[in-house]
Each structure stands twice: as structure tokens, then as C-alpha cells.
């Protein structure tokens, strides 16, 4: 694991301050696509929150690159508005003034050599004026089709080349290709410009506290790890449900679909963290090795028609209002076969998990917004209770709630108060908001800071990307020749075929 730079001595700083090893050294960040929704809602507020928490150095510089005819003052106003609307910490004039003094803006197109030459001059000037020390990260918050253009311009202009005792890094937003072939092609382009240890592929789910808590729960507690195997676990369900439609994302979403959009990255990463063996340490290489072992061991069902399901939301009523079906959304062709719901049954072919199915599902216009991992345990081999007094007893489960209410729920059987021995399911709940006084940082805060520190454990390696596509490609290829997705009612939990997939195994989906 890379070691964070040691902050300068400060006699006024409390030595017990746990931020000390996590304060970034001198650096600048360039955001391409700074006018986009991701930048306004997530990236710019996260940068401000990092500064407000005292985790960015006073010399930090932020440069925006876009085609808009803006001055640096115009750019500062855009950042200001985004921070005011979306920041998680209170607005501080002192923090803002310090941060805004490092703002710069460069206008240009991605194929404009002169604009990138100006950007190179701007970065060099920041080193001299702000003391950023030649350390710069480049955030590609742009459509995937623009990746090669921007990367080649960074190479041509010399921006990707670090100077002595300095670093240059690139941050790439998903999707990392749309299949294995395109992922390999993208990696060829990236590796021509940046070495692998300077490439940070953003999967923002890995920055969420509850996702990281999977590792803490498993490996810090003797209570859980002995039963984390096929002797005790019946199955695992990983759910990412959204209660909204595609909105204005038709240009991106159509032709991509739920499986490529979130299962290939978010959900398979959650599977890997849930199923991995204990790493030697929590440095990047150790974590990657264990995750890669899991992804390499994932096996699909022999009959993809029975072990997968896909759907497309229809028009109907949801939350008291009539909503459009997928084919009625702006920009969607009436004959589109892009799925808005995807589910699949996978197995991990290892000694620990042999015979334990992992059910993954993701979709839009479902019952509510929730992301969770449910580890469902086998029933007790013998219950010394009458059926009438234990009829409501289900299977024990540990549920990691990733969003929106971050925490962990443990479901187990307990006696109902009274004179009879009646047993019923109860839940023991841990919530981050109740258990800790510290505010949980937003995922992009953690990930941006990790880039500036050169700390890569939470970023997928190229090999993980390739293994994920190897799992998904046979499924999407099968679906392309299997007709249209099954319609499902908005506000429901997906198509009937997804329920049938579990029913064939004698199981059913959890109601989150």
C-alpha cells in the first residue's frame, strides 16, 4: 500500500487527530466533463467537503476543462452553486476562499491541440504559483467514446509525463468497455499513456462505508467467519433496486442495460468482497488477488434460460402517479430490447462456497431504492418446538445495507413474551448514523482522496474488469438471441421469470 505523505509539523495540531495519515500532499486535479451532472452533483461537492474536513492541502488546485465559453470566475460560480446545493458539510467562507483561489478553467474541445497546450501551460503555472509540486490527477468524467481522444491528447501535450519526484494519475469512470473485447481495447489505449499503478478506475460503490464494512465484519470478528461457508450458508442475495426510470439517460442507457450498467461492476465487486478469502493484508495487491480468485471461480448455470431473467418496465402507476414505460421514454426506440431489470444465478466453484448459489438482481422502477447483500443461512437441523409455535420462524440472515440506510441487520429467532414457547423472527440492527458520532464520508470523497494519496485498494484492477466481462458476456450474448425482455409493472419487484428462477431452487427473493 502506498504511504500517504507526512503532513508538515504543526504545534497546534492535535496529535490524536486521526486525519493525519489521510491528508493529501500538494496536488492538482483536472476534471474533463466538469459541466456534467456527475461533476455538479458528486465531484465538486466532494472536493469542497474534503477541503472543509481539512484533508486537502492549502495549495490544492482544481482545473475545469470544457467547451463552454467561461472565464475562471464563471467556473468558480458553477462550483459555488454545486457546493451550496449538494455539499454534505456546512458552508465555510474561509474554506471556500482558500479553495477558490486555486481554481482555473480551460476552454476547448477534446480534439483541440491548442486547448491542451493551454492546459499544459496552466498546470505548469499552478506548480509555480500554488506549489502543487508537479503532482496532477486527470479525471475523465466524459462518455467512454471520448476516452481515447483525451488520453492521446494528454500524451501528446506531455501532461501524462511526471517530472522528477512527482506523479501523474488518471481517473476513469465506468463503464470500462461494453464487453471483454472493448475492455481490452480500452486498456490498450490507457496503458499507452499511463502505467497501471497510475490508473484509477472508479467504482463508487467500493467507496461506501457499508461495502468496506463487509471486510471489517468478516475479518475483525470471530463471531462471523467460522460460519461464512457452505456448511452454514444456504444462499446469498445481492440486490440493487432503483424506484426511478432512466430519466434523461436514454443516450447512455439504451443498448447498455441493467446488467452492463451495474451488475458487471458494482454487483460482481460486492460478490467478490462477500466471497473472498482473508487477504494477507489490506494493501491493494493482496485485496486484488483474493477478489480475482473469486471472480475466476464464478460459474454460470448450464441453461441460461433458467438461470437468468430480464425485464423491461411497462407504463403504469407508481407512488400515486402514472409513469411512462421504457419504450415511451424520450430517445428510446419502440422496438428496443434493452433490459431495465436483470437477474442471474451464479455459483463460486471453491471449497468454501461449493453448492451455494449467489443470486444477483438489479433494476429500475422497482418497489423502492435499496442496495443490500443478504447472506441467508441454512435452517437449524432440528427444532425442538411444535410447528404451531415456530411456524413464523424463517432463516437466519445477515444483511449489509449499502444504501440508503447504511448499516447491518442480523435476523434471528427469539421467544415471544408470554407463557408459551413461541419463537418468531426478530432483527438486531446496526446503523452508521446511530453508532458513530463521525459523519460517514460520501463515496467520492473517499475515492478522490485515495487518488491524491496514491492509495489504490478500493479501485478495480484491469484483471478484475476482464474477469467480470468474462462472466457477463455469455449472458448478454444469450439474451440478444432470446427475444424481448419480459414486461413488468412499475413499483413491483421485477418480472415473474425472476421469481420463477428462485422458486425452481425452492427459494424466494427477500423483500427489502
UniProtKB/TrEMBL annotation:
<feature type="domain" description="Glucose-6-phosphate dehydrogenase C-terminal">
    <location>
        <begin position="215"/>
        <end position="510"/>
    </location>
</feature>
<keyword id="KW-0521">NADP</keyword>
<comment type="similarity">
    <text>Belongs to the glucose-6-phosphate dehydrogenase family.</text>
</comment>
<dbReference type="InterPro" id="IPR022674">
    <property type="entry name" value="G6P_DH_NAD-bd"/>
</dbReference>
<feature type="binding site">
    <location>
        <position position="67"/>
    </location>
    <ligand>
        <name>NADP(+)</name>
    </ligand>
</feature>
<comment type="pathway">
    <text>Carbohydrate degradation; pentose phosphate pathway; D-ribulose 5-phosphate from D-glucose 6-phosphate (oxidative stage): step 1/3.</text>
</comment>
<feature type="binding site">
    <location>
        <position position="242"/>
    </location>
    <ligand>
        <name>substrate</name>
    </ligand>
</feature>
<dbReference type="InterPro" id="IPR036291">
    <property type="entry name" value="NAD(P)-bd_dom_sf"/>
</dbReference>
<dbReference type="GO" id="GO:0009051">
    <property type="term" value="P:pentose-phosphate shunt, oxidative branch"/>
</dbReference>
<feature type="active site" description="Proton acceptor">
    <location>
        <position position="266"/>
    </location>
</feature>
<protein>
    <recommendedName>
        <fullName>Glucose-6-phosphate 1-dehydrogenase</fullName>
        <ecNumber>1.1.1.49</ecNumber>
    </recommendedName>
</protein>
<feature type="binding site">
    <location>
        <position position="364"/>
    </location>
    <ligand>
        <name>substrate</name>
    </ligand>
</feature>
<comment type="function">
    <text>Catalyzes the oxidation of glucose 6-phosphate to 6-phosphogluconolactone.</text>
</comment>
<dbReference type="GO" id="GO:0050661">
    <property type="term" value="F:NADP binding"/>
</dbReference>
<dbReference type="InterPro" id="IPR001282">
    <property type="entry name" value="G6P_DH"/>
</dbReference>
<dbReference type="InterPro" id="IPR019796">
    <property type="entry name" value="G6P_DH_AS"/>
</dbReference>
<feature type="binding site">
    <location>
        <position position="204"/>
    </location>
    <ligand>
        <name>substrate</name>
    </ligand>
</feature>
<dbReference type="Pfam" id="PF02781">
    <property type="entry name" value="G6PD_C"/>
</dbReference>
<dbReference type="Pfam" id="PF00479">
    <property type="entry name" value="G6PD_N"/>
</dbReference>
<feature type="domain" description="Glucose-6-phosphate dehydrogenase NAD-binding">
    <location>
        <begin position="30"/>
        <end position="213"/>
    </location>
</feature>
<feature type="region of interest" description="Disordered">
    <location>
        <begin position="1"/>
        <end position="20"/>
    </location>
</feature>
<keyword id="KW-0560">Oxidoreductase</keyword>
<keyword id="KW-0313">Glucose metabolism</keyword>
<feature type="binding site">
    <location>
        <position position="261"/>
    </location>
    <ligand>
        <name>substrate</name>
    </ligand>
</feature>
<feature type="binding site">
    <location>
        <begin position="109"/>
        <end position="110"/>
    </location>
    <ligand>
        <name>NADP(+)</name>
    </ligand>
</feature>
<feature type="compositionally biased region" description="Pro residues">
    <location>
        <begin position="1"/>
        <end position="10"/>
    </location>
</feature>
<dbReference type="GO" id="GO:0004345">
    <property type="term" value="F:glucose-6-phosphate dehydrogenase activity"/>
</dbReference>
<dbReference type="GO" id="GO:0005829">
    <property type="term" value="C:cytosol"/>
</dbReference>
<dbReference type="GO" id="GO:0006006">
    <property type="term" value="P:glucose metabolic process"/>
</dbReference>
<feature type="binding site">
    <location>
        <position position="174"/>
    </location>
    <ligand>
        <name>NADP(+)</name>
    </ligand>
</feature>
<feature type="compositionally biased region" description="Basic and acidic residues">
    <location>
        <begin position="11"/>
        <end position="20"/>
    </location>
</feature>
<dbReference type="InterPro" id="IPR022675">
    <property type="entry name" value="G6P_DH_C"/>
</dbReference>
<feature type="binding site">
    <location>
        <position position="208"/>
    </location>
    <ligand>
        <name>substrate</name>
    </ligand>
</feature>
<keyword id="KW-0119">Carbohydrate metabolism</keyword>
